[in-house]
Amino acid sequence: MAEPGKIYVGQHGEGSRKEDRQLLDQIYRQSRGFDVSRTIMSELNLAALIELIVEQTAELLDARHCTVFLHDDRSDQLWAIVGTGLDKITIRIPSSVGIAGWVFTHRRPLIINDAYSDPRFCRDVDKATDFTTYNVLCIPLVNRSDVCIGSLQALNKSSGDFTDKDQLLLSTVSQNITIALENGLLYESLKEISEARKKVIDHLSHELQTPVAIIDAALAIIARKLSDEDYNDLDKPLARCQRNLKRLLSMQEKTSDILNYRYSDDQATRLIETVCSLTEEMSEEDQTAHAAVAQKLLRRLESIHKIGDFRPEPILISAFLNAICDHAQAEMQPRALTIIRHIEPGLILIFDKTVLQKICAGLLKNAIEATPDEGMIQVAVGKSDDGVTIAFQDWGVGITTDNQRNLFTGFCHTQDTAYYASKHPYAFCAGGSGVDLLRIKAFSERFGFKVSFTSQGCRHITDPATMCPGAISDCRFIDSLANCMAAGGSTFTLHFPVTAPAAPLKTKG
């Protein structure tokens, strides 16, 4: 029997000390996890954040290395930055491949203490990074909206195998890691938006400056001629005025389409009202041929900015696109370009003809302006069980990688602003308002069709100082149309879904 007041040291005491050590170890690990969370939450730059997560997590778990895999929704791939310093590389794997892919797909943590014996392990990543993986602890990164944004894995624990305690600790830290990564991704998106906004301002400044200056000069000439009662040389100033007003009104019209805004008669801009008043005065005071020109300009100004309601109707695609191609072929003269047409005959699409005209004419115009003389453009139409596809392909200068990311954000042109020029429509590298593609994207979301593109910048244009001469025969890098076509180009594809397979047009008899 135990004596009162006497302390016994034995097996029970040793067990208590072991439990105390385990408890202290657990407290220390949880404290380190808290420190890691606090450290990474202070970083917004995504590249620096990933490097910090890798460093802190590896130290926390006593691992040789850690990797953060993030999911790319557009390509359905997992990507990761591996290496340090100047030796960093980005790797991409399908979202279901490897341990990281399995964890991302199944949203379950995984411990593999013999990596090469597990069939899910992807050895290609080790080969690409010159690293040998022995054991892996991988957990999914799930945000507060219950969306998995990637996976986090620790590799090669220094003190042996990964344990359930390691998994629990990493899972606890992963909640704050996921929040930090989402903040970093948002920060990167904001930087891209900021860069796009700079391009918008730059583009608008260029796009508005030229036509406004020309209109101002043209109106000054008109006023001077009127005051001198000399009407012999008004044709050219009026034509310049009309052409540049069309550019301004075209920009306004496209922006209105994007915003789903429609003008009424009393909502014309102050600039249009001023010019309309001026042309009215000219027509009243002058009964010569110039009055007819002024009236024509007035009617055009009063009608060009109006946008009607959406009215779907049966459209015979072959006749519709052939008319657009014929018009473009006439308008782009004297340019030497070939428009190849592969249009399936008899195909009908139920859509608004005016909207479709804006979409197809805009894409064809962009293709023409991106293609040097002596080049080729193709318009192809086909049907499938789920709809109609219209593709506009050019073998021109292509679209730069940076601009591909912002292509549907508006006011985005394919070349640097320093080499951008607002020329006549259909001229090579003519430029334009840059909102054509944004308007098409807005139309696609509003009316239920899809728009996609692929593009490869001309491989001979390696820096901003290198420019396409505008004609294949003037290019010092190539000697034939085939070589030019292999150098770069773009394809924009429209897909219009239908409830039933598209059918050829039926003729009577």
Give a quick rundown of the structure.
With 509 residues, the chain is α+β, with helices and mostly antiparallel strands. It has helices at residues 11-40, 46-61, 98-106, 123-129, 164-227, 235-259, 270-285, 289-303, 317-331, 353-370, 401-405, 436-447, 481-487; strands at 63-72, 77-82, 89-94, 110-112, 136-142, 148-157, 312-316, 338-343, 348-352, 376-384, 387-394, 450-456, 489-497. It folds into three domains: 11-190, Beta-Lactamase, CATH 3.30.450; 231-303, no CATH class; 312-497, Histidine kinase-like ATPase, C-terminal domain (Heat Shock Protein 90), CATH 3.30.565.
List the defining traits of the structure above.
single chain, 509 residues, alpha+beta, Beta-Lactamase, Heat Shock Protein 90, 3 domains, six-stranded antiparallel β-sheet, five-stranded mixed β-sheet, 13 strands, 47% helix, elongated, disordered C terminus
Describe the structure.
The strands form three sheets. A six-stranded antiparallel sheet has the order 3-2-1-6-5-4, sandwiched between helices. The protein has a five-stranded mixed sheet with strand order 8-10-11-13-12. It has a two-stranded antiparallel ribbon with strand order 7-9. With 509 residues, the chain is α+β, with helices and mostly antiparallel strands. It has three domains: 11-190, Beta-Lactamase; 231-303, no CATH class; 312-497, Heat Shock Protein 90 (2-Layer Sandwich). Helix content is 47%, strand content 18%. Mean pLDDT is 77; it is low at 5-10, 259-273, 303-307, 416-420 and 499-509. It is built from 13 helices and 13 strands. It has helices spanning 11-40, 46-61, 98-106, 123-129, 164-227, 235-259, 270-285, 289-303, 317-331, 353-370, 401-405, 436-447, 481-487, and strands at residues 63-72, 77-82, 89-94, 110-112, 136-142, 148-157, 312-316, 338-343, 348-352, 376-384, 387-394, 450-456, 489-497.
